[in-house]
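In response to a reviewer's request, we include the raw inputs and outputs for one of the modeled complexes. The two entities were modeled together in a single run.
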Amino acid sequence: MSLYPDSRLNGEGLRLSYGDRNIVENLSVGFPDGKVTVIVGANACGKSTALRAFSRLMKPEGGVVTLDGKSIADHPSKEVAKTLGLLPQSPTAPEGLSVRDLVARGRHPHQSWWKQWSEEDKIAVDAALEATGMTDLADRDVDELSGGQRQRAWIAMAVAQETDLLLLDEPTTYLDIAHQLDVLDLVARLNRQSGRTIVMVLHDLNLAIRYADHIVAMRGGKLIVEGPPKEIITREFLAEVFGVAGEVVMDPIMGHPVVLPHSTIAR
Amino acid sequence: MRLKPRASVVVAILVAALLLVAVITLALSVGDRATNPVDLVRALAGLGEENVVYAVREVRLPRVVIAVVVGAAFGIAGGISQGVLRNPLASPDVLGVSAGASVAAVGVMAIGALGGPIGLVPIPVATLIGGFGAAALIAALGFGAGFRGRSLLLVGIALSTALTGITQYLLTRMDVAGAQSAASWLTGSLNARGWGDTLPVLIGAAVIVPIVLMLGHSARALIFEEDLTTNWGIRGSVVRVTLLVCSVALAAIATSAAGPVGFVALVSGQLARRAARVADIPPILSGIVGALIVLVADTLARTVFPVQLPVGVLTAIVGAPYLLYLLQRPRRGRGAL
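The model returned the following structure tokens for the whole complex.
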């Protein structure tokens, strides 16, 4: 059973595979409500695949993902879309799409072919632009923006979807360090201001430690350890999860652990 | 106060519709003898000089109507397939649907000339079968490639070339008169077309366009990758296949009425998207743009040249350079329309 079986988004005994290639085996994990959870692990450890299963993009071969206590597959898809938002890794926008139009597309699950644009949609879009600091850039085309601005625009789209849970797959890919901090500060703010539950996959372990309330570490398709960064980040964690020898020190200013990788461990 | 996000589409539709009304009026007025606006209105009501009434109601009106209807059908068909396949080249004429419809129609003409039951197949039916046959072949051959993207387009272009070869062969087997009329049909021509050719297109459009509009909300989201649209609760493959069937049917029926008028399907959606300044292709607007293109081209084809040209010649003169432009321009990012 998962550590947080009562959380709104929970998985029990998940087995995930592409064709006959097993990616994730017997994964039981729940994401604490109202917190920021970061899934970490080496390349190909199954973290992005797990995120796909939790966002209903992939059907588990075994086990079940539950949303609000009911199998996510049994919810009407529109209802899921109003509860759980997803930002895929490096999404692309077609030429000529303005930021405002992109953000307005996040309202899709709230609309239908006979009810296309309401006052509520307008309020949600304006609020999302405001929350992400994109109001001044709203009329620019997405493909003209810098990498960091573009990622903020996509997050604004996900914000406009107004979901209680937001899943992000490597939201900092291709960004320089300042823009990585910028994007993750924004995500953290979304969590604090509105109590949204955030689940994200991150590559950079030190950023994961800094922004996560809860870390889920995977290796070889299995859950290795989960818990608050301060409790679980140790030399042993580095060796076991990433196969890296190094030191863990305390950041004297930010007050959280920092990983100093020294070498890979032959295995 | 800002307009709502789709306001630019509504404005563009209104402007294009007004323009279409103006061009229709002009097209009804020009011919061997120009008709002034007062006489035009009177002639439409059946009043006035007999030969003017005849020219307006019996000669020009059917031709204007068929140009508008066929142009709209090609425009909508092209806009849909380009949007669904996320590629500005992916219109029915480039993909081989028009070539499939053509080979079936010319086949019926060629074999029908020899006598026998095949000659009894109506051309609209033949073009539908040919268009869907070609589409099914493209889908089957492109299926391994994931049913979208560039490989599907390459399959379509290859198939189109092969089918055109067969059509050419059929032409060589026909007698001179038959080959000449088939060749003129193949260029795309509205000469001597009447209400009987228009009606099947109108009926087809009346069935298909409402389906396209109902799927519009989901279709607009297809500009994004599947992970996002699935998260939004859209059944992407159902929407895609339904829309592609609609596109093929519209293109095939339009081809039956006017022949494969080239490049209209290719150009209309792109012009519509740019005019409305949106990232997707609005179907109604691309229909109006298609109607405008065919009507302007046909009106020029029948008035400014010493001989009546097939409308397809004029659309090709405009469309071919545009196709070259699309082929050579650098692409910004994946999924750029």
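As requested, we also summarize the result in words. The two ends of chain B are 30 Å apart (CA to CA). Residues 332-337 of chain B have pLDDT under 50 and may be disordered.
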